[in-house]
Amino acid sequence: MAENIRAYDQSTNSRGSVKQNEDSLKAIDMVHARIHEGKTWFLSAARDLTASSDSDLLVVTSAGPEVHVRFAVATEAETTIAVFESVTASAPGTPVNNLFNRNRNSSNSTTVLAYDAPTIVTTGTQIVFGKTGSGKQAGGEIAALAELIVKKDTVYLFRIHNDTPSVNWAYPQISWYEID
User: How many domains does the chain have?
Assistant: First the structure.
């Protein structure tokens, strides 16, 4: 009979799971374990950006579990990507309903809410800034190399700005897991 054992390594400040199966131990990292537990979600959407325009995604965390976020944005041409914290919106926008659990067998729901095309009053504090496709490169991708542990009960804005006078294409992907 297989049993799951939780492990914690103080020297690296990391957690993981060890699964006993047929007299052998197999270790998986914490994110992989969260996927198996049904506590990891993602959203992705293609964006056609008109000349010098913004595409905004509002992400709202709850007062509940701790949320760990990673993101990436692939673009066709020069683009600026920024993430803002403690944003004020007069209207949240259209609810994003394609927040998918990475464990497709899980019925767990996320505590995170996401909205497309919000009406922003103040952008709050900019915590991430980056450019892709600038200079001699036509397009590219920018990604958070490390995850962000975002504040509870806080509104975040993921803004993609088309820096060109032409139509630009962007493909944002946001992934997160929750720790109770």
Answer: 2
pLDDT, one tens digit for every residue, the chain (180 residues) = 445 555 555 555 556 555 555 566 678 888 889 999 999 999 998 999 999 999 999 999 999 999 999 999 999 899 999 999 999 999 999 999 999 999 999 999 999 999 999 999 999 999 999 888 866 555 677 776 679 999 999 999 999 999 999 999 999 999 999 998
H or E element at residue 32: helix 30-37
Check whether residue 32 and residue 47 sit in a common domain: no
> What are the two backbone dihedrals, phi and then psi, of residue 175, each rounded to the nearest 5 degrees?
-130, 140
Do the beta carbons of residue 163 and residue 49 sit within 8 Å?
Answer: no
Q: Write out the residue range of the structural domain in which residue 51 sits.
A: 41-179
Amino acid at 7: A
